[in-house]
Design goal:
alpha/beta, Rossmann fold
């Protein structure tokens, strides 16, 4: 970090910066374009339902979703994702979040995209939004081919909190002065750890906590 910023702001991607879930759109388009077999698509849909209704731990569901990449060429996937970003995701960026990013940048905030999604989605979105840095999940590859396994821990739930704390320590940011924007109860650890949690069109569980604690809520 060439110039030390005053504070750090963490933004979740899916249903926070975006009004949609990028993973769900990627799965749908992969099936429509023939990159994903029907049986794998059905498994992805069932995993999505399990995740939505909290029938299984989120980390298990995310790992299952990632497994469909096994055998894919990294370059092929990157090209595919770039098209999805251009045609489907950019138009679903929340205008309110663009304003929040611009406000924090003017005030000297260091903006970080913090997501369970992969860098193939996160980095282009961060570049488009003028975000300074990305913290996200990664997938293992061997000779340019996905193995279907994550490289390290999926950046979700408690892992997000761990990474946020490490980031603040490594970059001399005060955790209690940091901001976090999120939409889901799965981000509760991060929101509780940071000094200024902001809930963006939150789900019912996170909304209930936000209202009880007096956290800021943005509706869009």
């Amino acid at each position: 970090m060439s110039t030390q910023k005053k504070y750090v702001v963490f933004f979740d991607l899916d249903k926070t910066l975006l009004s949609v879930n990028s993973g769900k759109i990627l799965v749908q388009m992969a099936y429509k374009t023939g990159l994903m077999p029907f049986r794998t698509y059905l498994k992805a849909i069932s995993t999505s339902i399990v995740y939505k209704f909290n029938l299984r731990k989120p980390i298990v569901a995310v790992n299952n979703m990632a497994s469909w990449l096994a055998g894919f060429e990294e370059k092929l996937f990157t090209d595919f994702v770039n098209k999805i970003i251009e045609n489907n995701l950019i138009k679903n960026i929340r205008p309110s979040m663009v304003k929040e990013i611009e406000l924090h940048k003017k005030q000297g905030g260091h903006i970080v995209l913090l997501s369970a999604s992969l860098p193939y989605v996160c980095q282009p979105m961060a570049t488009h939004l003028g975000i300074d840095e990305v913290i996200c999940s990664k997938m293992e590859t061997i000779n340019g081919i996905f193995t279907g396994f994550p490289a390290g821990n999926i950046c979700l739930g408690p892992e997000k909190e761990i990474r946020v704390k490490k980031f603040c320590e490594s970059n001399s940011f005060i955790l209690n002065e940091s901001y976090s924007y999120a939409d889901s109860i799965s981000d509760l650890e991060v929101q509780t750890a940071t000094g200024h949690p902001v809930c963006v069109s939150p789900d019912k569980k996170l909304r209930r906590i936000a209202e009880n604690k007096g956290w800021r809520i943005i509706e869009e």
